[in-house]
């Protein structure tokens, strides 16, 4: 049953008509638990609350189904405005983005223009931008673009997914760049030809890449709600004397609040991934696919 539900929500995440319908009706049925709101003001309000509790943030203006240059430019403009708002509010937050929302599927050159504009603006504020990794079809081109951007910018990082067979080698290859990586398990449905189909294998590989990247001496953003993985990371940093300023834990907005606060109280840096915008449906469906408990939360809200 869990597999059926996961596949259903992942399929819905890519459904354009469902996305358009969701935009029309706004954040309902529990989506507001995982999405800060539809405007920049909503997102900055959320950042202020999180900062007040000792947590830092990465903001993401949600965008999917970008098919025209105009749509890509609008998405890039929202990224720039988000960076402006972070600076003007004086909050502690950086920016996450998906390159498909900046036109990667339309034109590599368009995406690169938008990326350079965003990274230049972020650099002027002393801020940092994280490139989210998307599905396997975009993996190699995303890494290639990241390498090219690193020739010009040092304020950019990328995400690496533990469920892909190639990931350990990717981390080894990126070591020469001293890459700042967010390590995740992975949230897309992929073929067993390219990704571990079994959860136990994904977990084992996640441990492998946490250890690998930390021992490489490069900054690690360990993004997980799995307490066993968090405990494993704690053991590695203690064993090898890795200082707390060389890594952080990252979690999603609205999930495991108590755990986030516990880690802050223990002296660890915790960054919360805070999405906002009216194009929230695909993101919300992937969150439901990840954890069945999220589905029951939504069902309860529907009956309310």
From TrEMBL:
Its cofactor is FAD. Transmembrane segments: none annotated. Keywords: FAD, Flavoprotein, Nucleotide-binding, Oxidoreductase, Proline metabolism. It catalyses: L-proline + a quinone = (S)-1-pyrroline-5-carboxylate + a quinol + H(+). Coiled coil: none annotated. InterPro entries: FAD-linked_oxidoreductase-like, PRODH_bac_arc, Proline_DH_dom, Proline_oxidase. Its EC number is 1.5.5.2. It is an enzyme of class 1 (oxidoreductase). This is proline dehydrogenase.
């Amino acid at each position: 049953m869990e597999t059926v539900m996961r596949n259903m929500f992942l399929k819905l995440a890519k459904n354009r008509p469902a996305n358009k319908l969701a935009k029309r009706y706004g954040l309902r049925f529990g989506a507001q638990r995982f999405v800060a709101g539809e405007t920049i003001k909503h997102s900055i309000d959320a950042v202020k609350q999180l900062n007040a509790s000792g947590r830092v943030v990465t903001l993401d203006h949600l965008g999917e189904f970008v098919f025209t240059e105009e749509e890509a430019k609008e998405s890039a403009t929202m990224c720039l405005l988000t960076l402006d708002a972070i600076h003007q509010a004086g909050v502690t937050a950086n920016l996450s983005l998906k390159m498909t929302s900046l036109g990667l599927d339309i034109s590599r050159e368009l995406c690169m223009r938008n990326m350079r504009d965003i990274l230049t603006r972020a650099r002027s504020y002393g801020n940092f931008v994280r490139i989210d990794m998307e599905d396997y079809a975009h993996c190699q081109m995303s890494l290639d673009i990241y390498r090219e951007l690193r020739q010009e910018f040092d304020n950019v990082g990328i995400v690496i997914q533990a469920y892909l067979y190639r990931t350990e080698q990717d981390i080894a290859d990126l070591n020469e760049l001293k890459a700042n990586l967010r390590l995740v398990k992975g949230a897309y449905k992929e073929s067993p030809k390219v990704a571990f189909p079994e959860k136990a294998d994904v977990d084992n590989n996640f441990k492998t890449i946490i250890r690998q990247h930390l021992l490489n001496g490069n900054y690690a953003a360990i993004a997980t709600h799995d307490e066993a993985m968090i405990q494993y990371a704690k053991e590695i940093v203690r064993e090898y004397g890795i200082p707390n300023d060389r890594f952080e834990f990252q979690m999603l907005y609205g999930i495991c609040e108590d755990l986030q606060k516990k880690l802050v109280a223990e002296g660890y840096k915790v960054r919360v991934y805070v999405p906002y915008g009216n194009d929230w449906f695909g993101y919300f469906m992937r969150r439901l696919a990840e954890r069945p408990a999220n589905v029951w939360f939504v069902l309860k809200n529907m009956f309310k």
